[in-house]
User: Fold Beta-amylase from Prunus avium.
Amino acid sequence: MAIASPSAPSFSASFCRIRTETPSTFTRVPSIFTHRAKPRPLTRRLALSARFNKSTSSDAGGSVSPDNGEPENVEPDDSELQYELFHGFSPQRCRKGSPVFVTLPLDTVGPLGLLRRPRAMVQSLKALAAAGVEGVVMEVWWGLVERDQPMLYNWEGYLEIVALARRCGLKVRAVLAFHQCGTGPEDPHWIPLPLWVLDEIDKDPDLAYSDRFGRRNMEYVSLGCDMLPVLLGRSPLQAYADFMRNFRDTFRPFLGVVITRIQVGMGPAGELRYPSCPTQKLTWAWRSRELGEFQCYDKYMLASLNACARAIGMPEWGNGGPIGAGNLMQNLEQTDFFKSHHGSWTTPYGNFFLEWYSGMLLLHGERICREAETIFRGTEASTSVKVAGIHWHYRTQSHPSEITAGYYNTRLRDGYLPIARMLAKYGFTLCCSCFELQDLEEQRTNPVGSPEGLLRQLLSAARVCDIPLEGETSTTSLDHQSFQQVVRMSKFYSYGLEKPSFSFNFVRMDKKMFEYHNWIRFNRFVRQMSDANAFRAKLEVDAMPDTRRSPTSISDVAKFGMGSTYC
Assistant:
């Protein structure tokens, strides 16, 4: 089949897309399964804790729930929390809550694809189950599974995680991570793209994103070559599809039973965006209010831009990104493109470029959504996509840091509604972060940022398009204020919905999580978010044989010791 070359692209006017459909090749790789243990009879009687039978009502302050009116910024007394943890669960009224999942550590699976410290992992999973957590989030790295050769997959470590989670009564959400993890070989959490992909990038550097200064970003393969056979005869889209098919075939017995959701990575950090700001800097980029850099200077992106410009009779608009976009650290009001008044982002050229730039990202997402929907159809596992929480210019007119990431979201245009509509079209869930961040804290150092404003816009888009929502923390925050902020923002999405579909991923499990006061706060948070699920988990744990039961108290968790928990 003929493929249009970058030098002579064949595009349509609608985002100048190449409609080249190439069949995905696939070679079945033998799956690795652990033997299923025979079910053991439950000899232990179901037990309700003394705490559940306590007569104090929630209205009298005997327990805490998201609905009982407790001041949200006042941390509860430790003695009450200790009592609850030792003796069970507070008498909250049964309701349909929001399940809480916990993301596993980055080094859960080692460089050779094997599970690290399995015994300690079991203890940690049992502690999570006892706290009422619904399940865990497991990041499945392309660079580990298909590391050495194309279509040679090693799922061993991930199969073991799923088996352990099932044994502990936990569900699993799998994140198919097609991006790089870490900053380089010296990073303890370094996971590059597959080695054979890096070899191809060495031969053709334009497979990586590039900014106007020629700086290459190796976190994710450029979406400009999505449909071109640049990876040893396969296109990146075919490589992603083959990976997803093999995942489906290998984990089929668990799909819809243990593995209940699959998040499909679509860019750096697994998010549908451009690497306008390196992922390792995103945790503090808001402090410096970085504008970001347009990632449209590899030859494949430039070919698409040039073809679009010629299609509308303006070839001079197709030579690169906007002039006058400023530097990363520059005040946006000092730039010609992003400034609030008479900035060129409001001109016909600005609109053309931003429509093309965001349209290419949306097309990339739609292509992968279409493949994933076809591959996982009938498995009873839902699918999701993550959108980045880039909030540090949200109160400005032009939203430069969002624009450079590929979200054409300004005071004049909603850039997230098209993404939500695309997800609704293919039955995907929207995943977004920043649930623990507060405007009050942000604006002490950055008056133009608004994590709450951005999140409300994303939640509103999800409500309008009637798609389920999956929330996340952007950092590992274990303080009381952060937990209460998550509760507040989850109510914003769920309020007034007849059947709200909201769940939450806590990012991520580490040794601090199991420390005394942090563990108390986390247990209380889980019960606030999903008290009905926590009570069900409590019954299931109490019904387990003695050899499989998990401790539910702080003292029992302490007996594990920090060395016994996974982290």
User: Anything to note?
Assistant: The longest strand covers residues 135-141. The CA atoms of residues 386 and 431 lie 4 Å apart. Residues 1-15, 17-72, 80-95, 532-564 have pLDDT under 50 and may be disordered.
